[in-house]
Amino acid sequence: MAVELREVTDLKGLRKFVHFPFLLYKDNKYWVPPLKKDELEVLRWDKNPAFEHCEVKYVMAFKDGKAVGRVAGIINHLYN
Residues 3, 67: contact at Cβ < 8 Å? Predict the structure, then answer.
């Protein structure tokens, strides 16, 4: 089956986006997980003041209904 890309557009999807590395690296004894609350606050459109001048898109990849990847694209208009 093909990989399906889904854009994250709500808080529920953003929580899944933040949780994905915990699934990916669950068996890696060298992985040090970040604090989920901090990750969520940095990535939330309504909490991070940087998003007043940045555009952002979060996309998750799914295969057979299971999350297999994620990517964030950010354009900082003040920097550019």
Answer: no
